[in-house]
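ok so I'm stuck.
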Amino acid sequence: MSLTVIAQRMSSKSFQRLVVGLFLSATLALLAACSSSPKNGVNVVDRNGVAQRPAVTTGQYAVRRGDTLFSIAFRYGWDWKALAARNNIGAPFTIVPGQVIRFDGRSGTQPAGSTTRTVVSSSAGSKTTVIKRSATAPVAAAPLPAGPAPKGWGWPSNGILIGKFSSNGSLNKGIDIAGDLGQPVLAASDGSVVYAGSGLRGYGELIIIKHSDTYVSAYGHNRRLLVREGQQVKVGQTIAEMGSTGTDRVKLHFEIRRQGKPVDPLQFLPRR
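replied:
not stuck anymore, here's the structure
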């Protein structure tokens, strides 16, 4: 029934009350919808399922079983050389469970006079590792000169590109490639496997390859890993089987990091 017909059948005051009531109901519904939306007006989704945060520059981390210096650097946004130098760790950069890795410029020992505590997500599930912060102001890490990019980059999979790198790194720190379960995952360049495991939340079964002192690449969500830590690999070599560990569909999440910072893989991979 139209408002015109309703108005003809109702008194003037009753019709006015009806119109005001409808207006207030619509206004309240609109306000409720706004209050349930994010303050910025959009929902920001991390496509990789990994909490985005800046590099940790204070505190300490207790090494857990399965950790490597490279996986810790990858997890907390550090260049592995800088983290090794900060903790006086030399080649072959071996660490052991219980060893303390510091982020605040002092040696890897228990700080005297630690006053505050913060909790940083650990390797898997809801477990956490306590990072103790010192009252002393942190010392910023000195940037290291960037080396040349490795030659001979190749695509890690021949699947379909379904996710691109975000320009600011806040949504996707790499690219996502869809494929079939068990499809070969290939090394994108020559290098050494420095991590192979499932200890980094959101990446599932993950491989990290060091290509030079500056560049590493990462391959996440694999079904099965076919290489081990310390193994040398060549560009195009099969290193894993594509899977869906740590995500909701079969895909490869691929990253390239320069001095610990994510860069757009499409700037390195050949055009196709």
